[in-house]
Specification:
Layout lengths: L3 H29 L1 E2 L2 E2 L4 H9 L7 H9 L6 H21 L1
Antiparallel strand pairs: 1-2
Length: 96
């Protein structure tokens, strides 16, 4: 059963990258305060924007706002989500 442990982690990573990340990214950004119309007043996103001032087009803030408006989720977000899920899956497989 030793061979099953890495496969469980890899499977969890694939599921996380392809299914969970796209489904959860926009709702999480909405909770933080990013919306289709821009940062919502009084939220964390609005506070960050007021601290930044002029937002550079290639910044992380601009990318988060673009995703919240319905733009495609960048490949980097898919990789991060898949890696995180894979690590959790492998840890759970070793515990069980």
């Amino acid at each position: 059963m030793v061979g099953f442990v890495p496969l469980a982690g890899i499977g969890a990573g694939i599921i996380g990258a392809t299914v969970l990340t796209p489904l959860l990214t926009v709702p999480v950004l909405n909770v933080i305060g990013f919306s289709a119309a821009g940062p919502v007043a009084g939220t964390l996103a609005a506070g960050i924007q007021s601290g930044i001032g002029n937002v550079a087009a290639s910044s992380l803030f601009a990318s988060a706002q673009a995703i919240a408006t319905g733009a495609a989720i960048p490949v980097l977000a898919q990789v991060i989500g898949g890696t995180r899920t894979g690590v959790v899956g492998m840890a759970l497989a070793f515990v069980m």
